[in-house]
Amino acid sequence: MISNRIRNKKLLDKVCTAKEAAMLIKDGMTIGTSGFTPSGYPKAVPLALAELAKERNEKIKINLYTGASVGDELDGVLARAGLISKRLPYQTNESLRESTNNGCCEFLDMHLSHVPHYAKLGFLGKIDIAIVEAVAITKDGNIIPSTSVGAAPTYVQMADKVIVEINTSQPLELEGMADIYIPEKPPYTRPIPIVMPNDRIGTEYIPCDIDKIAAIVITDIEDNVRPLAPIDEISQKISENLINFLKSEVKNGRLTKELLPLQSGVGSVANAVLAGLEKSDFENLVCYTEVIQDSMLELLDSGKVLFASGTSITPSAEGLKKFKENINFYRDKIILRPQEISNHPEIIRRLGVIAINTAIEVDIYGNVNSTNIMGSRMMNGIGGSGDFTRNAYISIFTTPSTAKNGEISSIVPMVSHHDHTEHDVMVIITEQGVADLRGLSPKERAKAIIDNCAHPDFRPMLLDYFNRAKEGKYKHTPHILNEALSWHDRFIRKGTMKID
Amino acid sequence: MISNRIRNKKLLDKVCTAKEAAMLIKDGMTIGTSGFTPSGYPKAVPLALAELAKERNEKIKINLYTGASVGDELDGVLARAGLISKRLPYQTNESLRESTNNGCCEFLDMHLSHVPHYAKLGFLGKIDIAIVEAVAITKDGNIIPSTSVGAAPTYVQMADKVIVEINTSQPLELEGMADIYIPEKPPYTRPIPIVMPNDRIGTEYIPCDIDKIAAIVITDIEDNVRPLAPIDEISQKISENLINFLKSEVKNGRLTKELLPLQSGVGSVANAVLAGLEKSDFENLVCYTEVIQDSMLELLDSGKVLFASGTSITPSAEGLKKFKENINFYRDKIILRPQEISNHPEIIRRLGVIAINTAIEVDIYGNVNSTNIMGSRMMNGIGGSGDFTRNAYISIFTTPSTAKNGEISSIVPMVSHHDHTEHDVMVIITEQGVADLRGLSPKERAKAIIDNCAHPDFRPMLLDYFNRAKEGKYKHTPHILNEALSWHDRFIRKGTMKID
């Protein structure tokens, strides 16, 4: 068994307990880990690290760099132990979110394609140790990643030392699904030779200098994947609106029935949107995305989607079980790439990806907030939404038109935080309808968004703001600056954006 | 003479007066023109169109799409005649700016690389007529562009009819400087084969179906280029700070003395920054930029810069004279590309361009406003700054720390319009100093920007805001929403951001 997983006998000397491996991690170090939207992240070593710090009553602090969100065994445990000084680039863990928002942990919210790129250029400082979850290590010391690739290839390349967590709960059949390609640094960068989503351009393993492998830990802790909320009526309506929009694009000759490669953000609305495709009459679809969720597997099952390229497989517990049981069916229909490639502007623009992401709020001029609630409170992070939106063939944002039982309007005069600007956002979809902003000036956009996307409870208030703003001296992007953020301020003070 | 310029005898039948050509333009049409940051734009036909409308007392309206800013003969004359219904994607003309801000003209502010891309995908509607300034038309009807390429190749490809302005003030020696390459639409797009700034990948002419050429107008009106302000003390200091920053990158091993391809925005500060390179000890530099200004020509003169790729040549009147007199020296040191290529994310990221652009204002968290003064008043537009910033090796924004005789702080609690978000901006430089934001969390950025870039008159006010914001409940991006835009509001009401 172990010889299947560790294929170089000399490496058996490196096998140790999680605690022994954790002892390599010192105060002030920067740790780069595998893991993306929580799958394929190291589990045993961070658990041991927290335990060790508690035992020794040490207040060590580390910088924790991952691919995207990771499970509670990494983010949650370390955040609660107060061990994280700085964290990048994305997270969904409740404890880490609390640490970020109460000021205990500095969080750096980055475009996911930028993370390995900047790390490689030396802009994120030295990476001391990389910790990578793997299904196996090859004879030459190369690492076969598990359910995600993320930024692990670059962290391994940059780190002084590598800790490998061999996770026996991850099937060996994952071998062959990864395609690892790390672009050279400028001026030696060459065109990335992907012209179809299913092009393979790299190796099945993460290249690793065998001498860097400092510890190998055997574990069987399963990916702590997140349950998906059932598809509610609002998500259902958003999905229908999206499908109808895509149909009209086909009708107008701007897309074919095969569409173009699809990218979809994570979460329940995103899942509903993909589920909607199942019942549509689009066919022979392909995906070039980040995360492969349940509905993507179902689309592969039915043959509606022929192929999916991503950087991680993150279904629900049930979906994961199905995936593992039918892995031979999925193996040649899925490629897992480094996030530098899955989210690369070059490839997204070349393939003409249709990008579908979720907004927290949208303003009347088409700016989108994906991250900071009421301007200051970090939710998860921008993730790959910026990589895809800026370079998409069509960039779409979905959001329910209200939140908090109707007290918050997701359409506001001005977003309280800007992640995607008016220059990048093409289409807004709520359960109310679709605003197609392509070719529209700011004032034309305002009309389209208020009329088609805002909830009727807030539509008159938005129109009132817009009309009064247009009375001002400068009418390009009409605003009343001392009122533009007053809806958020009212919510903070009174718990509602509505006026009494 | 004319046979050098119009090389197909049959096309001589198409030669007509500007007025006759202008009569092809009807109410409601969308016109796509050559021209980029004002050079190489059509002049005679728009002048005649305005005259014609006046003569006939017609109130026709057209949509005017260009490459970037164009001269007064196009933007100014048509704006003052009230003929422009919608205009994209960038402008610097006073009359057009007034039309935009008083609501007479709808202006759509776009990333310049997106313009031909979206036009080609049909997202900007039908292009009825393309008007292109040229130095010549080949035997096959292909068009040799003059001092800019811009979006003309795509407008010609998309338009029903093409009007060519042969401008005899533009030297025939410009032939050979253009390199025209239009990527196919997805799913047929292939890697753009540029790996060095001086790679030639296309044709010397804009491909044009000869039957589309509906009119040819001969003119000799010169490019109405803009004078450059002399380099003042503030620009000088910004330039010094920038050079010192680049030196420290070389010292830290993140750049070599050859640096990487440089992009520089337009205007006087940008010009000063490039002039600073002349005295530096960097060597064998190359540029991959949009606009070739005076200081770029001087850097080519001295051999400090070996090669420059751009989409337009726009020196001052004096610089233009020098360029024309020494065109044989410059011919093999400059390539003019379509703006889809000069600004393409694929190439910018591959080459590792160092992007240097000008901000109107910057906030303490590193968001940049490049376009809307006090949130609503359009200045020029985002231009290519977003294309370069997002994909740059290092993205730098420069701005004097104050404006309006010190009454406006260019560093504010929250920018009043967001063009570049915290996710994209790496370095801020004012005459006060340099804030290197790479790897910093929002609160760390605030400290760096306030300490290093803010003017001493405003530093205590910024610190006060930041410190009070940190007292709030959510500390990821601390803001006080009912105060975040109060500095702008105060300026609008009192003419100063200072507190009495």
Automatic annotation (TrEMBL), chains A, B:
Residues 319-465 form the Acetyl-CoA hydrolase/transferase C-terminal domain. One of its GO terms (molecular function) is acetate CoA-transferase activity. Transmembrane segments: none annotated. Belongs to the acetyl-CoA hydrolase/transferase family. CoA binds at G265, V266, G267, S268, V269, I360, N380, G384, K404. InterPro entries: AcetylCoA_hyd_C, AcetylCoA_hyd_C_sf, ActCoA_hydro, ActCoA_hydro_N, NagB/RpiA_transferase-like, Succinate_CoA_transferase. Pfam families: AcetylCoA_hyd_C, AcetylCoA_hydro. It comes from Caminicella sporogenes DSM 14501. It comes from the Bacteria. One of its GO terms (biological process) is acetate metabolic process. This is Succinyl-CoA:acetate CoA-transferase. SUPFAM superfamilies: NagB/RpiA/CoA transferase-like (SSF100950). Residues 8-217 form the Acetyl-CoA hydrolase/transferase N-terminal domain. The active site is at E290 (5-glutamyl coenzyme a thioester intermediate). NCBIfam families: YgfH_subfam. Keywords: Transferase.
